[in-house]
Each structure stands twice: as C-alpha cells, then as structure tokens.
C-alpha cells in the first residue's frame, strides 16, 4: 500500500487511475468495510487501482476546537486499511484551508486531479465547505467524468453500525457489543510505562499501558483482555480507572495483569484487546479486600478467555 499524504494546496505526481472509497473511517468498522470493499470490487471490474481517501485530524477539532474521541489512532487506522488490500491510501490533512474548498473545488482537485475514476461513499458522506456536497450532487460536480456508488446504511438486528454506536458501547463498557459492530475486539495500543507499582505489593503486578491521548478508552472497570507484546499474545485481566482505593490524582490509567508472565516489558509496545466487561471500578475498604476481589476477577477472566480460546480452536 502506497500512502500519499496530501496537504492543501498540494502538488503530487498523478497516481494511476483508481476507484476510491471516501470517508473518515474512524474505527474501520463493519459498515466502513462495506464501503471500502464496494470500491475494491469496482476497481477489479474496471481494472483500476484500489484506493481509500481519509482525513486527519477530525473536522470538529479543526472547525470547532473540540477534542475528538478517536476509536483508532492514525497508526491503527492505516494498518486496518492496509489489511483491506488497497493500493493507494490518500491521507489528507484536514485544515481550515481544506475545509474552505467548495464542493466543485474538492472534486476537481482531490478526485479528478488525482485520477480517481470512480468513488464509493456512505449514504451520509458530504464534502466541500459546510458539507454542501453530497453523493446526490456528486454526478453534477464530476460532470460525468467520474462514476459513483452510494452505500446504504448498514444495520444488523435493527442496530445501526456506526462510529457513534461503537463509542456509545465503549462509554457503557459494553466491549462485546462494540466488537460485534467493529468486527473485531476493541484495541488500545500503548507503551508500557512506570506506574506506582501498587499491584506488586498485593501480589498482582501490572503493566501500566499509556493510553493514547486522543483515543477513547472503555468505561472505568475491570475487563478480560488479551495483550500482544513482542508478537506474542497473552491472556490477562485489566483495570481502567483512577484506582480509588488508594490516593488518586484522578488520572485514568490502564493497568494489565498478564497471567503466568513475569518479564520486564517497560518501554515495549503493548496492544490490549478488550473481550469482556467483568465489573465496574469501585473503592474498597482495605488492600486485603481489594486483593480478594482482584483474585476473583482474575479467575472470572481466565474462565472467559479459556472459553474464547476453545471457540477459536473449533
């Protein structure tokens, strides 16, 4: 996959003709993949390159000064798109200058100008200043030079599959439903950093995984997780929260206890996948009471992860 970074105004060697999926694609969930795969099918039918055009940062950060809750870091999004087998990733820097383009300018410069011969987008995709361009107006702006396909809203069991729906699941701690919408378990990838090492004092050492600043973490609580470190997958139990049993600065942390693991992994990348919510975070009356509860949580997580592994092996 060739990553073509574009910042307005841009000058770039014209790529080969392509069919391109357009969208922000935060989370690259099952609905997004419907759009991307439709573009890929058209590319194969017409002998074109397979392409995706996405944007960073989120428009509301640029236009409204609000912090977005990303479901994927840019690095994660790139890797998920790479897995779709595309040839070109047009990565556009979303800026005030870019947002000021008219729909016609966007189509002329970022579609026709990039040799895109076919575009695919979701039913609610908009482009140009104040989103005045839509998939209904696209044929007018492309003047017959670019074909287009609009992918309808994707629902399953009366559940709309959208980034908003995934975020709501995570806010509720419902990582299992989030996984259903995403088509994979929700992940947080961060560096293992030094914490206060309280877990060691009660017999449950944890890896303190730094949560990427703009990425949405699931609701505070305890979860059954898997964690990838140095290419190996480990089972474990994780706590997201503020550690209310001890003196807390109110900062949320992600602490992962990996089962049957005692290696020093400070400074390593750890990719944590959330499989099941076990319980909300709570304050305990003593360290002994907390220790008993963590032991029970770990046993709960082990049983769930064993069942999960058995299903995968069948």
- Largest sheet data: 6 strands, parallel
- Strand residue content: 25-35%
Q: What is the CATH level 1 assignment of the largest domain? A: Alpha Beta
Q: Can you tell me the CATH topology of the largest domain?
A: Rossmann fold
Mean pLDDT: 92
**Secondary-structure element order, as H and E?**
EEHEHHEHHEEEHEEEHHEHEEEEEH
Number of helices: 10
Helical fraction equals 25-40%
Family: Belongs to the ribF family.
Domain Riboflavin kinase: 181-306
Pathway: Cofactor biosynthesis; FAD biosynthesis; FAD from FMN: step 1/1; Cofactor biosynthesis; FMN biosynthesis; FMN from riboflavin (ATP route): step 1/1
Catalytic activity: FMN + ATP + H(+) = FAD + diphosphate; riboflavin + ATP = FMN + ADP + H(+)
Structure characterization notes:
With 314 residues, the protein is α/β, with parallel strands linked by helices. The chain has two domains: 2-155, HUPs (Rossmann fold, 3-Layer(aba) Sandwich), CATH 3.40.50; 162-313, Beta Barrel (Elongation Factor Tu (Ef-tu), domain 3). The chain is 31% helix and 29% strand. Strands 1-4-3-2-5-8 form a six-stranded parallel sheet. Strands 11-12-15-14-13-16 form a six-stranded antiparallel β-barrel. Helix 7 runs antiparallel to helix 8. The longest helix is centred in the C-terminal third of the chain and has 27 residues, at 287-313. The radius of gyration is 22 Å and the shape is elongated. The model has no long low-confidence stretch (mean pLDDT 92). Belongs to the ribF family. Keywords: ATP-binding, FAD, Flavoprotein, FMN, Kinase, Multifunctional enzyme, Nucleotide-binding, Nucleotidyltransferase, Transferase. GO terms for molecular function: ATP binding; FMN adenylyltransferase activity; riboflavin kinase activity.
């Amino acid at each position: 996959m060739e990553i073509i970074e574009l910042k307005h105004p841009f000058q770039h060697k014209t790529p080969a003709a392509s069919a391109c999926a357009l969208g922000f694609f935060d989370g690259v969930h099952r609905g997004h993949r419907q759009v991307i795969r439709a573009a890929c099918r058209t590319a194969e039918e017409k002998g074109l390159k397979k392409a995706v055009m996405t944007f960073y940062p989120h428009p509301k950060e640029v236009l409204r000064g609000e912090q977005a809750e990303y479901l994927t870091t840019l690095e994660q999004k790139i890797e998920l798109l790479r897995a779709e087998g595309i040839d070109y990733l047009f990565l556009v820097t979303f800026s005030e200058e870019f947002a000021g383009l008219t729909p016609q300018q966007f189509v002329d410069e970022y579609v026709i100008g990039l040799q895109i011969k076919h575009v695919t987008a979701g039913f609610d995709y908009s482009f140009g200043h104040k989103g005045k361009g839509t998939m209904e107006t696209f044929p007018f702006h492309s003047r017959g030079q670019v074909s287009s396909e609009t992918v309808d809203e994707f629902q399953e069991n009366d559940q709309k599959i959208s980034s908003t729906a995934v975020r709501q699941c995570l806010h509720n701690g419902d990582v299992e439903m989030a996984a259903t919408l995403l088509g994979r378990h929700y992940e947080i990838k961060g560096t293992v950093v030094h914490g206060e090492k309280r877990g060691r004092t009660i017999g449950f050492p944890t890896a303190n995984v730094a949560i990427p600043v703009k990425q949405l973490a699931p609701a505070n609580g305890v979860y059954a997780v898997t964690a990838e470190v140095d290419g190996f997958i480990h089972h474990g139990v994780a706590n997201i929260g503020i550690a209310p049993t001890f003196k807390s600065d109110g900062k949320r942390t992600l602490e992962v206890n990996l089962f049957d693991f005692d290696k020093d992994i400070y400074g390593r990348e750890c990719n944590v996948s959330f499989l099941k919510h076990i319980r909300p975070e709570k304050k305990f009356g003593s360290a002994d009471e907390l220790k008993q509860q963590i032991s029970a949580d770990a046993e709960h997580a082990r049983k769930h992860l064993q069942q999960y592994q058995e299903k995968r092996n069948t």
